[in-house]
Amino acid sequence: MSTKGFTVLDNSPVKTRSKRNSANSTPSSSDQTKPVYHTTVNFDTPRTWISGKDNDFCENPPPFLGDDNMSYECETPFEFFMKIFPEKLFMKIAMESNIYAANNNRSNFKLTVNELKTYLGLNIAMTYLRYPQLRMYWSSVEGIKIPFIADNMTNNRFEEIKRNLHFASDEERVKGDGYWRVRPVLDILHQTFYEANDNSEHQAIDEMMIPFKGRNSLKQYLRNKPKKWGFKVWARAGVSGYIYCFEMYQGSDKSKRSKFGPIGDSVLRLCHDIHNLNIKLFMDNLFTSLPLLTELRNNGIFVLGTLRLNRVKNIQSYLVAGKLLPRGASSVTTSNDNISVVRWVDNKEVHTISTYAGALPEDETKRFDRKTKQFIQVSRPFSVQQYNMFMGGVDMMDPEVATSLIAFNKTTSKKRGRPGATDEYIPLKKRVVTKTSNVIRYDGSNHYPKKVSTNHPPRCHDADCKRRTRYICCKCQEPVCPEFIQKNEFTKVFKGTVGSP
Is residue 90 within 8 Å of residue 117, measured between CB atoms? Predict the structure, then answer.
């Protein structure tokens, strides 16, 4: 069997998985024998490149052999959220938090599952209702307080839960695992993410950042990320933003070295459950390398990504020099095992590498021309068009999830905490502060120091003094150091502070 000159060497039967009836599943229409469109390549086989040759799949990509369907019947985002964040996870967190509080002499702290759901909902809401300080959500100032948050949990209770929140006991600690404190949560989420949704045809692998600026040896710095400090995560996601698989980065393991490198090994682990489905996987030049692309294709996964030219030896000699190509033009070369490298000239040179996409078929895209100061149409190779279309899922946040979680702990009891914007305004009592007129302070007559008894001495009211004092002026009744009383007595008159004769 051949497709556009490419020979299919492996026709072994492959069955697509069905997660809905994993316990006692029966064959369905999707569990049919289908051909696999990939070759098994020996890494020791010499690779040669042919200039001008396009990919054998250029107009007929390998067909997708999976099912892109949700595994659960859900009518709302909240129902779907509760499938991937199940009840057993809430129970685990509540139990560990109560144990941690009891072990730290906080036996009065009792966290329920419903209260934990409300706490999580408030945290989700705070991610899209941003304030620089936590207490501002409970502010007594009209227009600043957010009743949606403040009316469902007091600020003191929110901070108490935050202080005692725990996910694992000390007995669950695993040597060498930097994330052991949250490992129970990560393991459950990894499983539920997998079970909730079948794989889509187009997926991408990229790095994500969980913002964090505290002290932790696992904290990373990524210069090109909007949030530069935090915990790095490798993730495989669909174009909709749904994450199929993720892995927390803990640094490279020097004891385990392979020909794919530590990043390549992470990619292979992320792709453990999508073999032989002809999935089109997109990644940037941080991940792409010839050994990794070859291994993924041996597993029935086709890759398209950007390329760092130093990753492919002598590839420059098989491509037309960029300075000889006008804007919109491209040059392509393909290896004897059907890996294509494309150079495209836009504002600058762009290079892609793929096991299924090359230069054809081309389309056109709109670009701004700096010389003519207007938009023009330029040609674009197929590999660039596919990369721009499918690389990078966008993180979604649905307020419906936060609203539903917060409602779990809703009560009709009397409100606690500070009054909200909708409450009747009651002015706060403030300490009355009186000041002596400057005319009396600097009149130069009858100002004598008097020592008073106080546990909290105030600051001297003289502008030239920053010290605290236990003396007051008998006439002004203001705290002031004795030496400054004398200064005010004799010098202010001669400086014209008060009317001179």
Answer: yes
The C-alpha angle with vertex 306 and arms to 299 and 391, in degrees rounded to 5, equals 75
d(CA 206, CA 288): 11
Per DSSP, the three-state class of 132 is coil
Over the stretch 219-267, which tens digit does the pLDDT of each residue have?
888 887 777 898 888 889 888 788 888 888 887 776 677 888 888 999 9
Percentage of the chain modeled with pLDDT above 90: 35
3-state SS class at 370: coil
Query: How many residues are recorded in the chain?
Result: 501
Q: Evaluate whether 447 touches 488 at the Cβ level (below 8 Å).
A: yes
**Among 394, 332, 328, which residue's Cα sits nearest to residue 366?**
328
| CA distances, 486 to each of 98, 447, 449, 499 (Å) | 63, 8, 9, 19
Contact between 265 and 186 (Cβ < 8 Å): no
- Of 107, 55, 463, give the one whose Cα is nearest residue 293: 55
Angstrom distance (rounded) from CA 273 to CA 244: 10
Reported as a single tens digit per residue, the pLDDT across 286-329 is 999 999 999 999 999 999 999 999 999 999 999 999 999 999 99
Number of Cβ atoms within 10 Å of the Cβ of 31 = 15
**Mapping DSSP to helix (H, G, I), strand (E, B) and coil, where does residue 472 land?**
strand
Amino acid at 100: Y
Helices (H), 218-310: 261-270, 290-298
Can you list the alpha helix ranges (DSSP code H) found in 299-346?
Answer: none
Where are the extended beta strands (E) located within 96-216? 202-211
CB 351 within 8 A of CB 342: yes
